[in-house]
From TrEMBL:
Protein's UniProt keywords contain Transferase: yes
PANTHER family for the chain: METHYLTRANSFERASE LIKE 7A (PTHR45036:SF1), METHYLTRANSFERASE LIKE 7B (PTHR45036)
SUPFAM superfamilies (alphabetical): S-adenosyl-L-methionine-dependent methyltransferases
Pfam family, any one: Methyltransf_11
Segment forming the signal sequence: none
Biological processes annotated in GO: methylation
Protein's name according to its UniProt entry: Class I SAM-dependent methyltransferase
Domain Methyltransferase type: 37-130
Keywords: Methyltransferase, Transferase
């Protein structure tokens, strides 16, 4: 992957973040309450949108991405602790979190089913799981294009699978899906779940 991807991430996302994505993040992330776990916190783009969290534990395995989040962390009025850990092996006790947030990250997780199991383990019963993800579209030609592009895209974009069906993975998990909003013809999904355990 090299060191360039963390450097260009915010620049590449900037046009979307000032328009459509900002509205999505604002609406979704304000639903995160209490002690919050953020999976794949990246450069900290979600940090300004937390209004109801009392503490945030942010997981980001890429040290260069995590380093770029420090400016946003310093500006936040909420205590934020970062960890260079992976979603598949979270360094927290069972039943710790009131809310979990993951935005545009499940495409990069090597073992997403294991990550979902870990999220359920560290979440309290009834905890909200809030996701904003891009997925494989339900369109024959566009889906095939995503399949063809994914091997190269993964190498260039920090392991991102353009064709990952995160919604299907969630349906296979023990988390309960309560709401799905489709954006850009189903390329992006906002998914709200809760931990039933």
């Amino acid at each position: 992957m090299g060191n360039w991807f963390p450097r260009i991430y915010d620049i590449a996302m900037n046009p979307l973040e000032h328009t459509y994505f900002k509205r999505i993040r604002t609406t979704l992330i304000r639903k995160a309450k209490g002690r919050v776990l953020e999976i794949g916190s990246g450069t900290g783009v979600n940090i300004p949108y937390y209004t109801n969290a009392i503490k945030i534990d942010a997981i980001e395995p890429n040290p260069l991405m995590s380093k770029r989040s420090y400016k946003r962390i310093k500006k936040s009025g909420i205590p934020i602790q970062t960890y260079l850990d992976k979603a598949e092996k979270l360094p927290f006790s069972d039943n710790t979190f009131d809310s979990v947030v993951a935005t545009l990250v499940f495409c990069t997780i090597p073992e997403p089913i294991k990550a979902l199991q870990e999220i359920q383990r560290v979440s309290k019963p009834g905890a909200k799981i809030l996701l904003f993800e891009h997925v494989r579209v339900n369109n024959k030609n566009l889906g095939k294009a995503q399949d063809l592009l994914t091997p190269l895209w993964r190498k260039v974009c920090d392991g991102c699978h353009l064709n990952r069906d995160t919604l299907e993975l969630l349906k296979q998990s023990n988390l309960s899906i309560s709401k799905i909003d489709y954006h850009y013809g189903g390329l992006f999904l906002v998914i709200e779940c809760f931990n039933e355990q």
